[in-house]
């Protein structure tokens, strides 16, 4: 039986070291990350992008960024991860989650252009690109739908739906991907438990397993671990760290300095706009402050 | 027994059995997708459709279904604009304006009082052969659609936004669910009446959900409860000379309360067995 990434986690998090076993499994899960995106098309590029909700004033205007930057002079600082990691940081309500939802095609851009993995989010063809994305939401689903009793295995299998066609029938390969993701996230014991009976930390691990089962080309995290206790946050960071070492790019909406340390660059949201910053420089500048 | 040889009774039993099997699945969708206000809006719009049908001299059920399916598409559009939820204000407007127009039409046209009354109270014994066929066909389609697309449906019921984000055509599935719900409501109006459409949809679903089982067992239980509640309600109506729809509601309510009680007792037993120290 495969041991989980969490089994290998140290009691105290050390982001300078990476668990060998986690890396191995990570490589197994994501066998060809380079092919996905790395080093070819930008993970995210925005031109004069304005985002927000329909019929409302834009939350953020004129975002002009490309990540990873193409020009030499603006190369981001190196971190200890193999993946390209971009963080969205800034105060609450500044538009981080709005941009994440725009990246996923859940919200259309109000103005300008946004490309994810080279695909224009406004075009119908973006539906194909969306199948390569894996979204890890902040919370459990809201409302009555969140009360729908679904087993952990089933919830993880939803990550494969983008690849299964409309009937959602799982092939042997799909089932294998689901089981591998469950094992990787250390939730085998919970596989038949209803997600409603899980703690917040366990539910986030299920969300990550669902994302991994999708075998994506880009992970998008919305404030991972924000409602978790210290132990849950540590476990969450370990999982994200192992993903960051897989070679698959990550976008993280976060206030967590430990996670910001994983990032190559940051998109900093402030005063209705956003600009790209070097993560290491940002951490040094804001030392001892909440971000 | 002689009663069952009367064609109207035979047709009523077939219709109640078919909708008992399929319509509670719609109840699970309504509850899981927070469609209670939507269902009110659709119900009123299909009532308007049925009234238009009566005035036009066409089977009111056809118009009720037509109007409710149109309402389904409107709701789907509203909900995608609202980015997740459904627009409560728009639903309230739809609901009250439909009801207002229905009463103006009742007042200004020569609709027979009993026919108008039947729209509110329903009359399963008044179903003709075509209407029963429609109920059976719709029930088979609902059951087949649910079985065929169970996983995508459960993904959308669980978290529509995330299902969409993973590249799954969640909007198509959501619209399909809404259309099924709307067709069910349109048909339900003829069987149990506009005021009691919940009897065949929500009550069996509520009873099944009270037992806190996982999604698939809940769907199965809802169907079983649906058939049992409809048949028991119908029997009760015959034995005690009651109107069918209220009798079904009474049985459904007892079933919901019974299931809640069973669940509580089961939990209590589980808790007390955990407290007993092992020897």
Written overview of the protein:
Residues 8-39 of chain A have low confidence and may be disordered. In chain A, α8 (200-213) runs parallel beside α9 (230-244). In chain A, the strands form 2 sheets. In chain A, strands 6-7-8-3-9-10 form a 6-stranded mixed β-sheet, sandwiched between helices. A 4-stranded antiparallel β-sheet of chain A has the order 2-1-4-5. Helix content of chain A is 31%, strand content 19%. Chain A has 291 residues and is of the alpha/beta class. In chain A, 48% of the residues are buried. Chain B contains 12 helices and no strands. Chain B has helices spanning 7-32, 36-56, 60-81, 88-108, 113-121, 129-148, 150-158, 160-165, 170-192, 198-210, 215-239, 244-275. With 279 residues, chain B is mainly α.
List the SSEs and their pairings.
The complex is a heterodimer of chains A (291) and B (279).
Chain A: H1 20-29, H2 33-36, E1 44-51, E2 60-67, E3 85-89, H3 96-103, E4 111-116, E5 119-120, H4 126-130, E6 133-136, H5 152-157, H6 161-164, H7 172-184, H8 200-213, E7 218-222, H9 230-244, E8 250-253, H10 257-260, E9 265-270, E10 273-278, H11 279-285
Parallel strand pairs in A: 3-8, 3-9, 6-7, 7-8
Antiparallel strand pairs in A: 1-2, 1-4, 4-5, 9-10
Chain B: H1 7-32, H2 36-56, H3 60-81, H4 88-108, H5 113-121, H6 129-148, H7 150-158, H8 160-165, H9 170-192, H10 198-210, H11 215-239, H12 244-275
Helix pairs in contact in B: 1-6, 1-9, 1-10, 1-11, 2-3, 2-4, 2-5, 2-9, 3-9, 5-9, 6-9, 7-9, 9-10, 10-11, 10-12, 11-12
